[in-house]
Amino acid sequence: MNVPARRVVVRDQERYTGTGMEPLPVLEVHQMCGRAGRPGLDPRGEAVLVGEAGSREELFERYVEGEPEAVHSRLADPGALRMHVLSVIATGFASTEAEILDVFEGTFYARATGAGGLADAVADAVDDLVTMGMIERETRGGVEAYRLVATAVGETTSKQYVRPETGERLVRGLRTAAAMDRASTLTVFEVICDTPDMDDTYLGNRERADIYRFARKHTAEFTTGMHEADDFEGWLESVKTARILSEWIDGATTEALVDRYRIGPGDLDSRIERAEWLLSAAGALADTLDLSVPAIGRARSRL
To answer: Is residue 8 within 8 Å of residue 36, measured between CB atoms?
Structure first.
């Protein structure tokens, strides 16, 4: 939205990154300050950095005199590239690696990595997506001639705007849940929370033992066995998030959850919003695979 602002106030210059508080990047602060004033609409704009009395020189040196950080393309992240490659294939913009390269050739990433680097990265992304079951190589007339087509799962994953890794995990979890005698809402929460698209929830040393006991008690409801998790600590964090969501739909208040799990009210809202999105994606993939997991509907209706 191109909404003009006469004055921009940057109240805080630090944020929690999952491991601790870190200063906001110079480029990000400049971007925020750049919202102040609009040519033709305002004669000037004002940007205010709010800080402690003794931080004036430090803030001036970092954010006024300091140089912005170098810009890096998001496509340099293999996960992001896989998501975009799947998108161009699923939407029909490309059906060969050469056509994919044509789509990306004008991007900042292509200019930064060069033609050879881009070709290698796209080839790796295609191989990964084939392994994940998101796309297939469809031969036409010979081994060397083939076109890339999205599978039904790949098309649904792309339409739901989730990462291919998330789609792959949802498919695996849904198949396990569908085979259970009775998958619970906790089951589907564990599935969606154990994906790259769910925000991590910090697991402190003091609560680790409690979450571990909870996981053991409810192991029959989970699609991943405690001895099967590739990243056990990461999986325990997912279990914690699933537990929070489970207690939320059972009537726990925001205040109780914030106090019990040391999670901020805004973080709780974020987890709930992402759960709604990921449950919708899980439901769409279940329909695509013709799997019956009624717990998805129960969880969505109570969020």
So the answer is: yes
Tokens of 246: 């489970």
* CA gap 87, 159 in Å, rounded: 8
> Is 9 in contact with 50 (CB distance < 8 Å)?
yes
pLDDT over 90, % of the chain: 77
In a domain? residue 69: no
CB 206 within 8 A of CB 189: no
Q: Which residues contact 215 (CB under 8 A, 6 or more apart)?
A: 222, 226, 236, 239
| Mean pLDDT, the chain, integer | 93
Rounded to two decimals, what is the model's pTM? 0.83
How far, in Å, CA of 298 to CA of 283, rounded? 11
Residue 219's domain spans which residues? 161-302
245/258 same-domain check: yes
The CATH number of residue 294's host domain is 1.10.3380.30
Q: Which of 288, 267, 300 is nearest to 167 (CA)?
A: 288
